[in-house]
Amino acid sequence: MIILLNKYANGTGGLNKWAKLKSGLEEKHLGNEYSLITSFEKFQRAFDREIAEGERLFVAAGGDGTVNFLLNQMMRKENQCRSQFILGAIGLGSSNDFHKSFSGSGNGQSNVNRNAPFKLNFNKAVLHNVGSIEYKDMHNRWQKKYFIVNCSLGLVAQANYFFNSGDKIAHWLKPKWVEGTIWYSALKTLLTAKNIPVRMRVGHEVFETELTTCSVFINPNVSGDFRYDIEISPQSDYLGVALCERMGIPTRVRTLLAMAKGRFVGLPKTRAWQAKEVEILPAVPIALEMDGEVSLARHIRIALLHRALRVCQ
């Protein structure tokens, strides 16, 4: 078993959280036969060697971005090898949406140690959907990445970027009050973000609109308490798609408040779908967020990879 530990998770608290959790997790779930890597660069260098030596169990100890990094390393391997992998996770991050319940309250977490959620039952691993994203970057080159929680464009993506940026208030507030930092990032972004003209294809439906924000997701939890009330699961035949369009500031605020209570479907200037494919062509480069990691994109194609990876419970 290889554990990738993000020592910078939740600001710089990853190592401190791990130190508090280590003995309890070793006693009940991990044992002592594992290797710990605390650098993404070292993990990339060691990954192929560990696979060649027979390693198939990998754990992301960090936030959703750490899970996303590990996911992308695993998904780039050939299916014959990837089908033997199992992904586990220990939530040391700020929001840990990967660990949240798919139904009811977004706060439901089945496995928790010292307020840190985890998925470490390798004996009960299940096949889990993965999202595939192809997008043109700022140099007009096609990139391919994967997500296992959600991806978003527009306002939500910009808020995620702001949450993880060097803003002084967000940087000071995050270690002290995660939910407050999420609200601060969301409110500051919705007051300044512009609607972006786009051409979209959701399934077979093609249309043009002005995009405020769009989320495509496997898990309906967005960040903190925000979530979509669209029925979806890790084994669904479809991705969830939630679009906010042509919204001014008052409608944005009302939508944000509703989503904090888990309500979205039927709100003014929103649309929702279950679809296997989504394509978005924005008039200008747009913020694209994948499990908390943000890039700028000119053209985006998103597709469901059904039950593509085994994941711990």
| Major sheet details | 17 strands, mixed
Portion in helices: 25-40%
Roughly what fraction of the amino acids lie in strands?
Answer: 35-45%
Mean pLDDT: 87
Please summarize what this structure is.
The protein has helices at residues 14-30, 40-52, 64-75, 79-82, 155-163, 168-173, 178-192, 249-259; strands at 2-5, 35-37, 57-62, 86-91, 112-113, 116-119, 126-136, 142-147, 150-154, 196-202, 205-217, 221-223, 226-227, 239-245, 270-275, 277-282, 286-290, 293-297, 299-311. The chain has 313 residues and is α+β, with helices and mostly antiparallel strands. The chain has a 17-stranded mixed sheet that branches. The protein has a two-stranded antiparallel sheet with strand order 12-13.
Explain this structure to me?
The chain has 313 residues and is α+β, with helices and mostly antiparallel strands. It has two domains: 128 residues, Rossmann fold (3-Layer(aba) Sandwich), CATH 3.40.50; 176 residues, Tumour Suppressor Smad4, CATH 2.60.200. The chain contains eight helices and 19 strands. The protein has a 17-stranded mixed beta sheet that branches. Strands 12-13 form a two-stranded antiparallel ribbon. α1 links the parallel β1 and β2. α5 packs across α7.
